[in-house]
Specification:
160 residues; Arc Repressor Mutant, subunit A; globular; 2 strands
Length: 160
């Protein structure tokens, strides 16, 4: 399908049915990929991927933070977190150091990491404002509320 036809389909109002149709996982992945492309395109000017910016921002906000607590906060597997931390550690933006005892560790941002986050935050803000303008602020507010509600319901289901 050519781009004009795709754009026309994309701008058509969605059909709402009484029951879900299609695969929710696929639809969420499609949306996630498209939103990630939008943010990555703009945030790339800072030298970070959006995922790296998000991780670095959460480290700065929570530091010092145990890796397990950080993974929980990000709704991420511990092994995925470890893999995603590696490039930030290699660049000298994050350190993983000893915790309260010999078995625990803490993750913290370095001064260079805080500086990198500040630079990336300006680019992220541009991306967020452009996203809000494209999708509509009212839709973004509803989207955030819907996502938060879905996460809470899914987390309740796993706790039972």
């Amino acid at each position: 399908m050519d781009r004009p036809a795709r754009d026309k389909l994309a701008k058509s109002p969605p059909t709402v049915s009484a029951s879900p149709y299609g695969c929710s996982s696929q639809k969420l992945r499609q949306l996630s990929r498209r939103v990630s492309q939008h943010f990555d395109h703009i945030v790339a000017a800072s030298g970070l991927k959006t995922t790296q910016y998000s991780l670095l921002s959460n480290i700065v906000r929570l530091e010092p933070v145990r890796p397990g607590d950080l993974a929980d906060q990000l709704e991420m597997d511990a092994s995925t977190l470890t893999r995603n931390l590696q490039p930030l550690v290699a660049q000298g933006w994050v350190v993983v150091g000893p915790g309260d005892d010999g078995r625990s560790r803490f993750v913290s941002a370095t001064p260079a990491g805080r500086g990198k986050r500040s630079a990336a935050q300006r680019e992220w803000k541009k991306a967020q404002l452009a996203f809000n303008a494209r999708v509509g602020e009212d839709m973004v507010v509803r989207l955030h509320a819907l996502i938060d509600d879905c996460l809470a319901r899914l987390n309740e289901a796993t706790e039972v």
